[in-house]
Design brief:
Layout (H helix, E strand, L loop, with lengths): L5 H24 L6 H8 L3 H4 L6 H28 L9 H15 L1 H8 L13 H18 L4 H5 L8 H9 L10 H22 L10 H19 L6
Helix pairs in contact: 1-2, 4-5, 4-7, 5-7, 5-10, 5-11, 9-10, 10-11
């Protein structure tokens, strides 16, 4: 690869400085308060100068959301890798380790988690098939792999799942998958249910709704993830390869 030019390196450095300032602004004031004018003021720039790097607030938000999704996926994958290296409890299934990596990042970065999963920013629309979509697909692939890797297509097709309406089955058939291959509609429904359970518990904790559990929140989460995984595995005949 060609070495970046001085101009390219300066632009990359300035872009990173803008992103850092925007992240700091979000941490201090929340995602809803983000504006190009506020970020420019923090950096001692004019809004017009900022436009050379991010032509709109949407462009800046897209970059921040993509970066946050990538950081979250990195944290989840790092947790899995640490478990594979024996740095974590060897008795924990990969799905539980991945879920706890997700939870840990969300708790450590509540403002960024709120940017991803809190109240949608007014007037912001993520670009269709843009970088935020690619980042979410990466996350989906990790959890699909930890849930279903090792099962054959025949095993997944025979999963014991609630009956789906023809309309829902048809819709799920069309959804893309990014793990080990195409999932049957019933298994996709199981995946979405598992994701809702996992994510819902994290949202409740990050936004303070389970604070009454105190230091026991981590244990409750681990128990819930173990139960979730056991339920799914009971529904798929045979064992994983």
């Amino acid at each position: 690869m060609a070495t970046p030019s001085l101009r390219e390196r300066r632009r990359a450095a300035a872009t990173q400085e803008i992103l850092d300032a925007a992240e700091l602004h979000i941490a201090e004031h929340g995602p809803a308060a983000l504006s190009l004018r506020a970020v420019a003021r923090t950096l001692g720039m004019t809004v017009q100068a900022l436009y050379h790097y991010f032509p709109s607030r949407d462009a800046l938000v897209t970059a921040l959301v993509t970066k946050a999704y990538d950081a979250l996926a990195d944290a989840v994958q790092a947790a899995i890798d640490a478990g594979a290296d024996g740095a974590e409890d060897e008795s924990l299934p990969g799905l539980v380790i991945a879920a706890e990596g997700y939870r840990g990042w969300a708790i450590a970065h509540p403002e960024h988690f709120q940017l991803l999963y809190g109240t949608p920013l007014r007037d912001y629309e993520a670009p269709v098939e843009g970088p935020t979509t690619l980042a979410t697909r990466r996350m989906s692939a990790i959890f699909e792999r930890e849930l279903f890797a090792g099962y054959s297509a025949e095993q997944l097709a025979a999963a014991d799942a609630p009956a789906l309406s023809p309309a829902l089955r048809g819709h799920l058939e069309q959804l893309p998958h990014f793990g080990g291959g195409h999932l049957p509609p019933a298994v996709t429904a199981l995946y979405l249910s598992a994701w809702g359970h996992l994510h819902g518990l994290v949202v409740l904790e990050v936004f303070g709704h389970t604070s009454f559990l105190g230091e026991h929140q981590a244990e409750i989460f681990r128990v819930a993830m173990r139960n979730l995984l056991e339920d799914i595995r009971r529904r798929i005949p045979g064992t994983r390869a």
